[in-house]
Predict the 3D structure of the following.
Amino acid sequence: MIRPAQSSDLPALGRMGASLMRTHYEFDRLRFLRPGAGTEGGYASFLGSMLDEPDALVLVAEDEGGEVVGYVFAALEPLSWKELRGPAGYIHDLLVVEQACRSGIGTELMHAAIRWLRGRGAPRVLLGTAAQNAPAQSLFKRLGFRQTMIEMTLELSDEGGTE
């Protein structure tokens, strides 16, 4: 079942958000934030701050036993001259716990978020995905997303960069 997140879901959302951070950190330890002590609480607090935001949405997916097994965080974003784009909906997070992967929950969460964004007048939906996350990219392509930007990173440390 897909439903709006509630404050009682925050401990589970914090664990899942921390899992998302750990996965991305393992993809690229230089690009992504290092998870540390307090990551679960920090992520729970952040998502909790979005629950009452009129331009943001946090949905959870429950299994048959009522356990939260996934979530999506989406928001309406205004025109951005910096990003050279008009107003858009943005899918910031999508996570399904490993034991529920390939069950259709990710697709259901995405459809629900897209419906919400469309209902609020978003003319398009954007998202970012880690270059190494082929399963997520496959899901997004099946849903009709197309690649439009490629993020590139240059580390300005002794190990990288140009002079």
Summary: The chain has four helices and five strands.
